[in-house]
Amino acid sequence: MLVLTRRSKDKIVFPQVGITLHFIRVQSGQVKVGVDAPRDIRVLRDELFAPEQASTLCDRQLSYLPKDVRHGIRNELHQISVGLYLYKELVAASLMDEASETFDDIQAALERLDKTEALNSPATTPPKPASETVVLVEDQLNEREMLASLLRLQSVPVVTLEDGNQAINYFHENPAPGYLLIDMKMPECDGPTAITQLRAEGKLDDTRVFAVSGTSPEAFGISINSEGVDRWFAKPVDPSLLLEAIDCPVS
């Protein structure tokens, strides 16, 4: 059994399925976890999906697997589900030793799932063309991951970056994506700075640039044209307008 001490900013990687768990904050008996997963793996949150929707989706995915494999996966998922509830109750009761043991059991179940051949992502899956990719630049983790999840649910390839410097480096090292969705106010290197440099270098000639901000274009001296940004999305962003702008079907 692999036993780990989990601190803020630690992570656990499941390379066979391409999933990484980020322990963003561990404090006062609560753990804030971020999940990085391939776009073909759906990560469900109960506050965003009704229980019956999540159950239907899981049942549909499992139905394609052999019966004995489905049975084993359901057993592991059951252990994880019960374990998470038990872990929460033990932490609430300040029984930290028992909570730690339960967490290790949950982790072991996740590792067994990671080794399940039926869940391995095919190595030969062809990559999506760069022209369909959205590069999402946002320094706030929650906002970045929620927008990325929204796009991935529509089968849109997404690259997530944390600031303007990372965006500049990405365009220097990769083919131009179809879209750049970038926050305007960020530390280190903000949106207007990154856009100005990339425009001057001709790196955005084949990319549609969408700005996201809680303020107006005038506040940043950004124009809405071929020299600035193609669209300006005010926060809070209307998801239907964003999906429509990148040619995604809106339900």
TrEMBL record:
PANTHER family: PROTEIN PILG (PTHR44591:SF14), STRESS RESPONSE REGULATOR PROTEIN 1 (PTHR44591). Homodimer; the beta-strands of each monomer intercalate to form a hydrophobic core, while the alpha-helices form wings that extend away from the core. It comes from the Bacteria. Keywords: Bacterial flagellum biogenesis, Cytoplasm, Kinase, Phosphoprotein, Repressor, RNA-binding, Transferase, Translation regulation, Two-component regulatory system. GO terms for molecular function: kinase activity; mRNA 5'-UTR binding. HAMAP family: CsrA (MF_00167). It comes from Stieleria marina. The gene is cqsS. One of its GO terms (cellular component) is cytoplasm. Its main location: cytoplasm. The modification 4-aspartylphosphate is found at residue 183. This is Translational regulator CsrA. GO terms for biological process: bacterial-type flagellum organization; mRNA catabolic process; negative regulation of translational initiation; phosphorelay signal transduction system; regulation of bacterial-type flagellum assembly; regulation of carbohydrate metabolic process. It holds the Pfam family CsrA. Belongs to the CsrA/RsmA family. The keyword RNA-binding applies.
